[in-house]
Design a protein that fits this description.
The complex is a heterodimer of chains A (242) and B (218).
Chain A (H helix, E strand, L loop, with lengths): L8 H32 L14 H28 L2 H33 L7 H22 L3 H29 L19 H44 L1
Helix pairs in contact in A: 1-6, 2-3, 2-5, 2-6, 3-4, 3-6, 4-5
Chain B lengths: L1 H12 L5 H19 L3 H22 L6 H6 L1 H7 L4 H30 L7 H26 L6 H27 L5 H30 L1
Helix pairs in contact in B: 1-6, 2-3, 2-6, 3-6, 3-7, 3-8, 6-7, 6-9, 7-8, 7-9, 8-9
Classes of the chains: A mainly alpha (242), B mainly alpha (218).
Chain lengths: 242, 218
């Protein structure tokens, strides 16, 4: 039993078919509990009023926007090294999901920034980094869409993902160097004494767990779709030959 | 290798090589920006470093798809791939040729155009130095982007989309060097980082680009 078994599309389809309903159910439960708790059963912040509640969408989606790229990086590496098609398709499937999380983080951030900072947008390091991340996602998806041969597309997008990751890190550093921030520091971290106060913290953690599962669900679903689409193409091609 | 470099340079300088295109674009931008922004010296002086760097970057972007596209179409790239020199070296040489044709002339005319933009006198040496250090990175990153899109019929726009986010660190550090130079501030850090990007890109990206070409020629 090793993780490489799931490189077999059949095995992957079986396991994901079993796991998908559980993932969907857990996602729904966690998101409903976390968001309802967060929106309706936490007090307003003494400074920010009720706008603080955007945090339950903003922080988890921002986290997942970055994690989605990391996941694409790992699956791209697996594709380059071991040539497992499921891995390449998972990377392809994750990109639009990651892009969506990035856009959610940007939009909720703008909605939050308007009343708090008095502006929709500031060239703050975090905001700028996310804008650049959006460009990376768009480029990656556009390259997938532009190349017809699926293996060539998988190879080239993987190379782009590897090189892009290095440059994304560089940009992050460059942007930090370039401008001081308006955005506050991390709200949650494992090595800090004081996090966000408990009333906000508990629903936030539930929301983060919900978003992680939402990501897993979406990626599983989309990867299954990609695999089916590819099977369909193979079937059609076989029929045409016959 | 020398033969390849000379061949690329000769092709670029002859008619239809698009040699002057980037320069003309850079010139037009530097003339149009003051017309659009207004002739006030203080404003121009403040935005000059950024405009000059953005202009150089966009001018570089214009000619990127020519690096490999023509060779891919007429089959020279297949010949180069089977030639005794490694494909990584081919990429490096072609990026160098691109730099000699665009980056170097851009660097040389930049001080002239900086006059239009009212760049403070202290900025001139740093403008030239930062472009000299930074434009090689633009060429090599661009060459890498061009290898990704070389197999596509209409890869130009996609190429820009792929390359722009990769250009961000170079642009930021390059602009920062000139800005600090113009204001007489300490600029060792951005200058060193700019050089680091160029050297790192020149050392590593040819490998990524060569593997992308191999995929495209498969």
């Amino acid at each position: 039993m090793s993780i490489w078994e799931y490189a077999n599309p059949k095995k992957f389809m079986q396991t994901s078919a079993w796991a998908l309903p559980w993932a969907v159910g857990l996602t729904v439960i966690l998101l409903v509990v976390g968001l309802v708790w967060g929106f309706f059963f936490t007090p307003d912040d003494y400074k920010q009023g009720s706008t603080v509640k955007i945090i339950y969408l903003h922080v988890p989606s921002a986290m997942m926007a970055i994690n989605a790229w990391v996941m694409m990086l790992v699956t791209s590496l697996i594709w380059i090294v071991r040539r497992h098609h499921v891995s390449a398709l998972a990377a392809k499937a994750a990109a639009p999901v990651g892009l969506t999380f990035t856009l959610i983080a940007l939009v909720t951030g703008a909605l939050w920034g308007q009343p708090m900072w008095g502006t929709w947008w500031a060239w703050d390091p975090r905001l700028t980094s996310f804008l650049i991340l959006t460009l990376f996602y768009f480029g990656y998806m556009a390259l997938w869409a532009a190349i017809e041969d699926p293996d060539t597309a998988a190879d080239l997008t993987s190379i782009l993902c590897l090189v892009g990751s290095v440059f994304a890190l560089l940009s992050r550093y460059a942007v930090l160097f370039w401008n001081q921030g308006l955005h506050q520091g991390a709200s949650l971290s494992l090595d800090k004494e004081e996090n966000v106060s408990d009333v906000f913290w508990q629903p936030l953690v539930i929301c983060i767990a919900g978003f992680i599962l939402l990501f897993v669900t979406m990626v599983l679903l989309r990867t299954r779709t990609e695999i089916r689409a590819r099977r369909l193409k193979a079937l059609l091609a076989r029929e045409r030959v016959a | 290798m020398k033969a390849l470099l000379l061949r690329d340079l000769r092709l670029a300088f002859r008619s239809g090589g698009g040699f002057g295109l980037g320069l003309a674009f850079f010139f037009l931008l530097s003339v149009l920006v003051p017309l659009g922004v207004g002739p006030e010296g203080g404003t121009l002086a403040r935005i000059a470093p950024g405009i000059l760097w953005v202009g150089a970057l966009l001018a570089c972007l214009l000619s990127l798809d020519r690096i490999f596209a023509l060779d891919f179409e007429d089959g020279s790239l297949d010949l180069l791939a089977t030639a005794p020199i490694p494909l990584e070296a081919v990429v490096a040489i072609k990026a160098l040729a691109h730099w000699i044709v665009t980056g170097l002339p851009l660097t040389l005319i930049a001080p002239g155009l900086a006059i239009f933009l009212n760049l403070p006198p202290a900025g001139y040496p740093w403008l030239v130095l930062s472009l000299l250090l930074g434009t090689p990175a633009l060429s090599i990153i661009g060459a890498f982007g061009a290898t990704l899109t070389v197999g596509l019929r209409r890869g130009g726009l996609l190429l820009s989309l792929l390359v722009l986010p990769l250009y961000v660190p170079t642009l930021i550090f390059g602009g920062e060097v000139v800005r600090r130079g113009a204001e007489g501030m300490v600029l060792a850090t951005p200058l060193a980082l700019l050089a680091a990007i160029s050297l790192g890109a020149a050392a590593l990206l040819p490998f990524a680009a060569a593997s992308a070409i191999r995929v495209n020629l498969r």
